[in-house]
Amino acid sequence: MAPNLTTMQPAETMDMLQDYYFPPYITLAHMFHAPQGWAIRNRLMSQYILQYVVDGFADYPVGDQPYETHRGDLLFHRPNELHSIIKADDRPYVCISLVFHFGTSAFPYEELFKGKHLLGNFADHPVETMLSQLVTHYRQPGLVHQMHCQSLLMSILAQAAQGNETSTRSDAITMPKLVLIKNYLTEHYSREIQIKELEDVSGLSKNYILTLFRQHVGMSPMQYLTWIRINKAKELAIHSNLSFSEIADRVGYSDVHTFGRMFKKKTGQSLTQFCANLIYS
């Protein structure tokens, strides 16, 4: 039986991590679908943990600090911080868990995260895609896949740290408009949407909308619409028995092949692979 690397001290894992030649060292990367009645209580880990909520809700206290985590929340905690994960019996909980360490190298987490555990909400954000891609690469053997995992982890940490930077004063004016557009896209994702509609809804010009999205979301409105459709497809794959063609139709694609190409291009895996990555126990 293979040893559980996540429960070991970082130094103890080094000789067992094939294809890792430099930090960060990743000892677990998986997507987990929590069964009914599942919970973790008062756990101590000797490595770093990133926990991302793909779907659902869970209470996630770290030490004396309680957190309610919802879809899109990314939570980070350090080695030897007592924590629990408690899902509600009547609500789902699907998460991506990353466990990692830096060997004997120091990791400047205080400088990056200023003591925070809840790093932000990254629903429909490139960070969400990077997390899914990391899980996919982690399941593949070989040096190239391990290097992809390491690169993606560092990018995720950098994006999460950047998300903690202080907002500008102009956010007070622009953010309500941005939320208005995002809500409109979320409500109408199942049909074709033109940029003119977003101009009418927000009262902003096309160029300003594009600038606003690139600055605060990291993508264009139409790319954001695609991410909404991808995540709606993931939800349907998790919570329904719909066929792939039915899922494609529900998220605004009349052609299942176009939908399949889009999903793989944006996530790095097919919808079939996404379902296969789900771990239920």
UniProtKB/TrEMBL annotation:
The keyword Nucleotidyltransferase does not apply. Signal peptide: none annotated. It comes from the Bacteria. GO terms for molecular function: DNA-binding transcription factor activity; sequence-specific DNA binding. InterPro entries: AraC-bd (IPR003313), Homeodomain-like_sf (IPR009057), HTH-like (IPR037923), HTH_AraC (IPR018060), HTH_AraC-typ_CS (IPR018062). Keywords: DNA-binding, Transcription, Transcription regulation. Pfam families: AraC_binding, HTH_18. Residues 179-277 form the HTH araC/xylS-type domain. PROSITE patterns: HTH_ARAC_FAMILY_1 (PS00041), HTH_ARAC_FAMILY_2 (PS01124). This is AraC family transcriptional regulator. It comes from Paenibacillus roseopurpureus. The lineage of its organism: Bacteria, Bacillati, Bacillota, Bacilli, Bacillales.
